[in-house]
Design brief:
The protein is globular, with a radius of gyration of 25 Å. Helix content is 16%, strand content 34%. The longest helix has 12 residues. The strands form five sheets. Strands 22, 23, 24, 25, 26, 27 and 28 form a seven-stranded antiparallel β-sheet that branches. A six-stranded antiparallel β-barrel has the order 10-11-12-15-14-13. The chain has 476 residues and is an alpha+beta fold. The protein folds into three domains: 250 residues, Thrombin, subunit H, CATH 2.40.10.120; 87 residues, Pdz3 Domain, CATH 2.30.42; 96 residues, Pdz3 Domain, CATH 2.30.42.10.
């Protein structure tokens, strides 16, 4: 269970599709689900007038949904290692003994009867063994089909058939105030159900992720469990809480079913990560001050500050300075919600958007496309005696920027990993942008390799970190 300390539609899955050879998942379809009626259109609530009304209960929903929510147990085997050469000479490998396995637990949701299980990526992070325990006490060993850290989703597969499942609901049809149930395994006490309402839609986290907010109690162990509506349909994957104490204080967050459906569909194609549309734009919310300066009646929408030359927004005729108001009629309030609205659409579709330019409202269709791998990222590990020895570098392209949450307009060469070696001793960090080596401007990995091969033991390096340019001059 991730804990956020202090401060902070899915079209129904009609067919799961054919999975790649070897996945073992049958080609079967999940039935569609009817769209629910908004609460404000239902009859006004009233005091119960009969014994039948007094005995109303969520139990039928629980009976329907709970069998498809599983407990997930993981084991991580760690080896106690001693790297001191003196100890190794005296005791050999006797000191490199396996330690007691570390265990963790969470929850998961069965979304296909052939054994496809959704959970959070952080629930299975680093696990050597994954066990899925069903509500009927059967247990299965699971293998990983997909892990996507960006969305914190993972798709697992167990060898079974005829399992109970939950249907997806278009999470954009949920409204603030709708009743929901959270089902999971908090604190490892066993399957538990809590009730609440949707407290907020498209709530944005610090990392740009978008969540459903609920006051249904979510505690450690609930991660990966189901948030369901009153028809027992899956509207979200419970993932974290906002808490000062570490327990549930009434604010929980769930990954919308839109994104969860995408993870399942991506796993069906054999992809190791979630395939999502790439907007290729950056922008900021329209504040009250911006609205007043532009003569707008209300501070709504996202003003585009920059558009990547390869973005579909360019083909749709949009420009920097345009204000995007909605996508498919659904409002957007910041760049994260804009990315979410576009990112949960199906690739190859063109979604209608409304935008303002010079006070006039306009319409456009934006084609949903994947981020281009251009230039090729050319992932390379640097060796030899130089300040970058032990670092792994890559060319920044739109696909890499999207995967890692970088500015979509960024280009150049980035450090993706730093292993033990000279680079670590010089303080080189993942995320550093290499801008210059010995007065040579760096644009590609090949520029780095050429500059390092022609140097004569004297290094003048410029690195960009957090928007600041850092310089290093050294010899050797």
């Amino acid at each position: 269970m991730r804990k956020l300390v202090t401060g902070a539609a899915l079209a129904t899955l009609v067919g799961l599709g054919a999975f790649v050879a070897g996945s073992g998942i049958a080609q079967q379809s999940l039935p569609g689900a009817e769209q629910s009626v908004p609460l404000y259109m239902l009859p006004q609530s009233s005091v119960p007038q009969s014994q039948q009304q007094i005995s109303l209960s969520f139990a039928p929903v629980v009976h329907s949904a709970a069998p498809a929510v599983a407990n997930i147990f993981t084991k991580t085997h760690m080896t106690r290692r001693f790297n001191d050469p003196v100890f190794e000479m005296l005791f050999g490998q006797r000191l490199n003994r396996p330690s007691k396995p570390e265990t963790s637990l969470g929850s998961g949701v069965i979304v296909h009867e052939s054994g496809v299980v959704l959970t959070n990526a952080h629930v299975i992070e680093g696990a050597d063994e994954i066990t899925v325990a069903l509500n009927d006490r059967r247990e299965f060993q699971a293998r990983v089909l997909l892990v996507d850290d960006r969305t914190d989703l993972a798709v697992l597969k167990v060898e079974a058939s005829g399992l109970p499942t939950l249907e997806f609901r278009d999470s954009d049809t949920m409204e603030v105030g709708d009743l929901v149930l959270a089902i999971g395994n908090p604190f490892g006490v066993g399957q538990t159900v809590t009730s609440g309402i949707i407290s907020a839609q498209t709530r944005t986290g610090d990392d740009g992720q978008v969540f459903l907010q609920t006051d249904a109690a979510i505690n450690p162990g609930n991660s990966g469990g189901a948030l369901v509506d009153m028809s027992g349909r899956l509207v979200g994957i419970n993932t974290m809480i906002l808490s000062r104490s570490g327990g549930s204080n009434g604010i929980g967050f769930a990954i919308p079913a839109d994104l969860a459906r995408q993870a399942v569909e991506s796993a069906a194609t054999g992809s190791a990560t979630v395939a999502r549309a790439w907007p290729g734009v950056d922008g900021q919310p329209v504040t009250q001050e911006i609205a007043e300066s532009l003569g707008l009646p209300l501070p709504n929408g996202v003003i585009l500050s920059s558009i990547h030359p390869r973005s579909a927004f360019v083909d749709a005729g949009l420009q920097a300075g345009d204000i995007v108001l909605d996508v498919e009629g659904l409002p957007v309030s910041d760049i994260a919600s804009l990315n979410y609205r576009l990112g949960t659409g199906r690739l190859g579709e063109a979604l209608p958007i409304s935008y303002l330019r010079e006070g006039a409202q306009r319409q456009a269709n934006v084609l949903l496309m994947t981020a281009p791998e251009d230039p090729p990222r050319d992932l390379s590990e640097i060796a030899g005696r130089n300040p970058f020895s032990g670092a792994v570098i890559a060319n920044i392209n739109p696909a890499l920027a999207q995967e890692t949450g970088l500015d979509p307009m960024l280009d150049g060469v980035i450090v993706t990993e730093v292993q033990r070696g000279i680079a670590a001793r010089y303080g080189i960090r993942p995320g550093d942008l290499i801008r210059e080596i010995n007065d040579t401007t760096i644009s590609l990995v090949s520029d780095v390799e050429f500059a390092l091969s022609t140097a004569a033991g004297e290094w003048r390096i410029a690195i960009e970190r957090g928007g600041r340019l850092l310089r290093l001059n050294t010899r050797g």
